[in-house]
Design brief:
By secondary structure, this protein is α/β, with parallel strands linked by helices. The protein is about 30% helix and about 25% strand. The chain folds into 2 domains: about 170 residues, 3-Layer(aba) Sandwich (Peroxisomal Thiolase, Chain A, domain 1), CATH 3.40.47.10; about 160 residues, Peroxisomal Thiolase, Chain A, domain 1 (3-Layer(aba) Sandwich). The structure holds oxa(dethia)-CoA (UT7). InterPro entries: ACP_syn_III_C, ACP_syn_III_N, FabH, Thiolase-like.
Length: about 325
């Protein structure tokens, strides 16, 4: 019988520094009231200078391995938009720091959908028999690419990392990952973009302005597409899993905005109390948002062993994706 991918460990890592809405309002033209009512965010974590995405990814991966009860891994995928360097990928360095030198390790660029994309890759490797234990890490430090003077992005994003271990098992086990769906639409490439620093607009280009280095987002456009795509893809995997809407114990949508999460749940007919959320304390942590929300839901008792879980995400590209799984008997670990 073909092996089934089974989630068997989860770890998280957050920077110590908390930045509240009032902290932001002290230097930007914004307010706690605006940020809370428009996004649901009260505070976020931010790295100190010198701490890189790879550091958070490494710590989250250590937690996931501890949670899984084994350091054995034969593949590592790191979903991130904020690698330690434009070149090389950060994943081999993280693997080496974990004592996993020699395994295949690569970065995956699907912006805020990166974790679901990584989970899909891990599932396929496990199903095909090409891997038996895969580390999937989602890690981002958007504080390193957002403009300190831009209230529209600075208020939303936070830094963090989450990681899971996916092992070969059977489809009836708790933790089994079922249907996965992915999609993209390149016509939306400008809605979320860092204009400069790639081959189309190198940093060395004479026309590159300092602003071109920063992350920008057309919020309203992204909002609309995020709701539509996340709801659609989650509905697709729900139906493929053979679950009714009432069967869904926990909907974990990308933590982009509390209003987006509410709108996705409303479209799907999932009650708000069945939604996991970590946005209030962490903001939008990009590729880390789903594993961080999962870990928070497990720690708070919101998630129980055997619960039917739907993950859904939307990100720059545009990219989106969803996955269905049952929740395993695991304790999230943070190092
Ligand atoms: O992770 C990838 C996916 N990302 C998302 O899904 C994010 C989706 N978008 C959103 O969550 C929302 O669009 C935002 C939270 C980014 C913005 O909320 P909005 O309600 O869509 O506001 P808006 O962009 O339409 O801006 C309305 C006003 C503007 O001022 P004017 O032009 O009307 O004078 C903005 O400049 O709100 C202003 N504004 C702010 N005001 C105070 C934007 N950010 C802030 C802020 N504080 N932090």
């Amino acid at each position: 019988m073909q092996p089934a991918p089974v989630l068997c460990g989860i770890g998280t890592s957050l920077p110590d520094r908390v930045v509240t809405n009032d902290d932001l309002a002290a230097r930007l033209d914004t307010s706690d009231e605006w940020i809370r009512t428009r996004t649901g965010i009260r505070e976020r974590r931010v790295v100190d200078p010198g701490t890189a995405t790879g550091d958070l990814a490494h710590a989250a991966a250590q937690g996931a391995l501890k949670s899984a009860g084994s350091a054995e891994v034969d593949l590592l995928i790191l979903a991130t938009t904020t690698p330690d360097h434009p070149c090389p990928a950060t994943a081999p360095d993280v693997a080496q720091r974990l004592g996993l030198t020699g395994i295949p390790a690569w970065d995956l660029g699907a912006v805020c959908s990166g974790f679901v994309y990584g989970l899909a890759c891990a599932s396929s490797f496990v199903r095909s028999g090409a891997a038996t234990r895969v580390l999937v890490v989602g890690a981002d430090t958007y504080s390193t690419i957002t403009d300190p003077d831009d209230r529209s992005t600075r208020a939303i994003f936070g830094d963090g990392a989450g990681a899971v271990v996916v092992r070969a098992g059977t489809p009836d086990e708790d933790g089994a990952i079922g249907p996965v769906s992915l999609g993209s639409d390149g016509s939306q490439r400008d809605a979320i973009i860092v204009e400069a620093g790639g081959s189309r607009r190198p940093l060395t280009d004479a026309h590159t302005t300092p602003d071109g280095r920063y992350f920008t987002m057309r919020g309203r456009t992204v909002f609309r597409h995020a709701v539509e795509r996340m709801a659609q893809s989650a509905e697709k995997v729900r139906a493929e899993a053979g679950w009714s809407t009432e069967d869904v114990d926990c909907l974990v949508a990308h933590q982009a905005n509390a209003r987006i999460i509410d709108a996705v749940a409303a479209r799907m007919g999932v009650a708000p109390e069945r939604c996991a959320t970590s946005i209030e304390r962490l903001g939008n942590t990009a590729a880390a948002s789903l594993p961080l929300a999962l870990a928070e839901a497990a720690r708070s008792g919101r998630l129980h062993t055997g619960d039917r879980v739907l993950l859904t995400a939307f990100g720059g590209g545009a990219t989106w994706g969803a996955a269905a799984l049952t929740w395993p008997d695991v304790t999230p670990m943070s190092i």
